[in-house]
User: Fold this.
Amino acid sequence: MKINPLVLAVLALGCGAEPQHQTRDAAPLPVQVITAAQVQVPVATPAVGATRAPASAVLATRLMGRVRAVPVAEGDRVQRGQVLAPLEDGDLRARLDQARAGLRDAEAQLAQASREAERRRQLRRDEALPQESLDQAETQEARAQAARQAAGGAVAQAEVELAYTQIRSPLDGVVVRKYIQPGDLSAPGAPLLAVEQLNPLEVVAEVGENLYSRLAMGQEVEVEIPALSQVQRGRISALVPAADPQSRTFRVKVELPNPDLRLGSGLYARLLFPTGQRPALLIPAAALVREGQLEGVYVANAGRAQLRWLRLGQARGDQLEVLAGLAAGQPVICPPPAGLRDGMPVEVR
Assistant:
């Protein structure tokens, strides 16, 4: 008997394997969840500024002299009073020795003149010496005293000139410019080295009238340094009350700690001044999943993982602000385990 091919096809479909959608679900994947929370976050008003050394000095000397050594390089830390560039000082030391010898001679002459004047004063009291002789002795004593003062001034002057051969740092800071090398001839007033104080740094910005009126001394400010991808916190150290007559802006200075000297002067900075609070929905950055340009989280709902694509706002430390795609109070799987997919059964533990 011949069987119809159509009947064979129907029988084959009837005896085939069970469709895939009827397969039993795999075992639930254990997950941990956190609750998406809405909290109050600070509202910040931005301003742009630049880092600046709060103190700096360009070192020079009043003498013409040859540089004996330069024991520092650009970038070196220096301390207040540290010698950075000694000049040759042989002739000045000889002049100082000569001045000190002259001072010792003047002191000896003064002592002798004082003894003679005192002896004659005693004789005059006993009426054993005419007044004219006493006047001569006291005149000699006065001249010796003046010579002693002049000799002392010469020593002081020589000591000052000798001190100018020791180019010292006036502050704790960093050498940022080096204009000389050993053997160079220094000229009076010519720059030798430049030193800046870099810890703490100062960030200077110009702000408008409305923002200025809401700021206070000591207020904490967030400072972003884009060049170093760095965010730090500083404090307002100065509010200059004189506005620029053209821009109508006020100068604000923020003190920024810089213990490792990673930051330097002249860097572009963005300051965020806190001016209030607003509600925001935050989730941990560890809960985020990415697919290409898309960012989202898995939510545990009725025993299954549901993928929610999000629109994110500003990062706040290890937290991310959610602008759309998630509601407060929803259980977010954090961290999402490896292999988790949309629709998979999950068990919250």
Summary: Helices lie at 5-14, 90-125, 131-163, 209-212. Residues 106 and 148 are 5 Å apart (CA to CA). The longest helix spans residues 90-125.
